[in-house]
Amino acid sequence: MNLHEYQAKELLKRYNVPTQEGVAVSSVDEAINAYKKISVDNGTKFAVIKAQIHAGGRGKGRMIEVPDQSGVVVVKNAEGVENAAKNILGNTLVTIQTGPAGKKVSKLLIAQDMYYDGPSERKEFYMSVLMDRAKKQNVIMYSTEGGMDIEEVAHNTPDKIYKEWVKPGFPLQGFQARKIAFNLGLSGTAFKNMVKFVSNLYDAYVGLDCSMLEINPLFKSADDKILAVDCKMDVDDNSLMRHADLADMRDKSEEDPTEVEAGEHNLNYVKLDGNVGCMVNGAGLAMATMDMIKLAGGEPANFLDVGGSANAQTVEAGFRIIMKDPNVKAILINIFGGIVRCDRVAAGVIEAYNKLGNINIPIIVRLQGTNAEAAKELIVNSGLKVQSAILLSEAAQLVQDAVNAN
Amino acid sequence: MAVLVNKDSKVIVQGFTGTEGTFHATQMIEYGTNVVGGVTPAKGGTTHLDRPVFNTVQDAVDTTGADVSIIFVPPAFAADAIMEAADAGVKVIICITEGIPVQDMVKAREFIRSRDCRLIGPNCPGVITAGEAKVGIMPGFIFVPGRIGIVSKSGTLTYEAADQAVKAGLGISTAIGIGGDPIIGTTTREAVELLMNDPETDGIIMIGEIGGNMEAEAAHWLKENMRKPVVGFIAGQTAPAGRRMGHAGAIIGGADDTAAAKMKTMAECGIHVVASPANIGATMAKVLKGELVA
């Protein structure tokens, strides 16, 4: 589950990770009031307005409705705040990560400006914590090259990316934190602050069950403070059962509405761009079915795993969800019945089909496993325009025929 | 014989008295698996499915001599159950539970590393040695005894592969469901190695999916150790990058963990890679007859 920048920063504070201070607002008036307070608190007229969406590249992104307005802007007076807030709130931000449709912005973060002058040089670093699947350990990745696209840095100058693996069950050790601070070229107060920052950041990553925690830029101010200017936090969905407060932070408006609806029916659905819908039990078989659709000349319209209990209710919900997509020209239901009996699934398909009525596209039902023959008989005798298969190769042929008929 | 579990395995069920544990333990007993008891904390001393219930895995092992455990404990407590089994000296720990937090598994895997045990899963269908022992949730009748081993990240795709092998005139020695999570106990390479060393297995079906580097690792090992043919399939050729496809581990993170990249590596290392999941069984039959050469 992804969190917004303002939510992630609130959570980091619980672990004493210093962040750029800010206030999240959802109206122009709130934005102006927040600016006035931040301006007084920090003794400066400068502040930063940041659109809150689940995507990066906001500074270079533009609003569809106001093309010269970017998603992150430095302001120096209340009029500037008012203009930016009016331009951004309720409008759609397109960045390199959102796709051309963009994302609607309903919240702004009014944040303190940290780029003031002082006795030392300002610096932007990069830091992220994630799980290294190959080593089966958490790893801290960091670089002196902050504030830019880290994948580009990794590609062009891989020697500028450092990695520090952490032994499972242990906190980040002192020598590791010092190594990181030294590699970032720090000394004196900034060095001490970085050692504390990275130790606390690692505790936050583990304590909040993050699957990814990225600070970019990780900032050294001109007075040697170390803090998170931006933060991207992705929380392990499996851990939400023990983090009710985090689960409450979920912003469903950031997700595909059909995927949210599928989730409410305990269906695992991912929308794709193709023309053949599919409904399958099991994630691996679901992916394999998508691949087979492609090999048969179609393009999969979705991933849909109905899980271990394919009954009339789940099949009906699956049908409804798939048919919301106007691109779908045929639907393949592929169920390998084990504990689930195929004849029951077939009865469920027939019941759902009759209930929905008016299905004008070919439906191919492949049922294999427990009671497969009985299931095929049920489908054939139902008189419905449903094509039945038992072998996967037969189903592939039927999909090919359906695609070619279009 | 075969690998991991057989008719002599003494199996306990952790989460024995719960709904899932009860249902699948019943099925396992019907299959002929030697289920010697189970564990449910605070229900020790009672009897369930005519078998003793223990408070701790240690009690169960001390009393029954169990060497295999299957775990149906809910996700919040499953990593703890894995560590408990390892600590009690269980040799083969099979964790069915789906949805365990990743950080729990990072810790549990580190904990069991120093114990003399093998973890299969989590988030897997379990292990079946056809005709001898079913320690999992798979429908047993599909796995007709024979000499083909299966290693797979996925449940129903394992059943599909077994069914195709049987329809192609072959049968199954041991099928190992290694699980679809990012952190699992036994890797593809380790499971393939077990079957490569098994005198009762003549060919191996290796089924992977997008995400991670386990299939490539197995392929490189096979290149040097291919003493019997391997047929491979990777699910997710049409999966978009960056989206999680059902399994927690099934997500394309870079250029190396796409289906295309894995299939290329596997083919280069001498595995018979099939593009369509419908051709797994027929391909294995042809390879064994010498009609196909990698």
From TrEMBL, chain A:
Succinyl-CoA synthetase functions in the citric acid cycle (TCA), coupling the hydrolysis of succinyl-CoA to the synthesis of either ATP or GTP and thus represents the only step of substrate-level phosphorylation in the TCA. The beta subunit provides nucleotide specificity of the enzyme and binds the substrate succinate, while the binding sites for coenzyme A and phosphate are found in the alpha subunit. One of its GO terms (biological process) is tricarboxylic acid cycle. Its cofactor is Mg(2+). Mg(2+) binds at N216, D230. Heterotetramer of two alpha and two beta subunits. It holds the Pfam family ATP-grasp_2. NCBIfam families: PRK00696.1, sucCoAbeta. Binds 1 Mg(2+) ion per subunit. Belongs to the succinate/malate CoA ligase beta subunit family. Substrate binds at N281, G338, I339, V340. Pathway: Carbohydrate metabolism; tricarboxylic acid cycle; succinate from succinyl-CoA (ligase route): step 1/1. It comes from Flavipsychrobacter stenotrophus. GO terms for cellular component: cytosol; succinate-CoA ligase complex. Keywords: ATP-binding, Ligase, Magnesium, Metal-binding, Nucleotide-binding, Tricarboxylic acid cycle. ATP binds at K50, G57, R58, G59, M114, E124. GO terms for molecular function: ATP binding; magnesium ion binding; succinate-CoA ligase (ADP-forming) activity; succinate-CoA ligase (GDP-forming) activity. This is Succinate--CoA ligase [ADP-forming] subunit beta. Its EC number is 6.2.1.5. Residues 9-59 form the ATP-grasp domain. It catalyses: succinate + ATP + CoA = succinyl-CoA + ADP + phosphate; GTP + succinate + CoA = succinyl-CoA + GDP + phosphate.
TrEMBL record, chain B:
GO terms for biological process: tricarboxylic acid cycle. Residues 4-100 form the CoA-binding domain. It comes from the Bacteria. Pathway: Carbohydrate metabolism; tricarboxylic acid cycle; succinate from succinyl-CoA (ligase route): step 1/1. GO terms for molecular function: nucleotide binding; succinate-CoA ligase (ADP-forming) activity; succinate-CoA ligase (GDP-forming) activity. The active site is at H247. CoA binds at T17, G18, T19, E20, K43, I96, T97, E98. InterPro entries: Cit_synth/succinyl-CoA_lig_AS (IPR017440), Citrt_syn/SCS-alpha_CS (IPR033847), CoA-bd (IPR003781), CoA_lig_alpha (IPR005810), NAD(P)-bd_dom_sf (IPR036291), SUCC_ACL_C (IPR005811), Succinyl-CoA_synth-like (IPR016102). Substrate binds at Y159. GO terms for cellular component: succinate-CoA ligase complex (ADP-forming). The keyword Metal-binding does not apply. Keywords: Ligase, Nucleotide-binding, Tricarboxylic acid cycle. Succinyl-CoA synthetase functions in the citric acid cycle (TCA), coupling the hydrolysis of succinyl-CoA to the synthesis of either ATP or GTP and thus represents the only step of substrate-level phosphorylation in the TCA. The alpha subunit of the enzyme binds the substrates coenzyme A and phosphate, while succinate binding and nucleotide specificity is provided by the beta subunit. Belongs to the succinate/malate CoA ligase alpha subunit family. This is Succinate--CoA ligase [ADP-forming] subunit alpha.
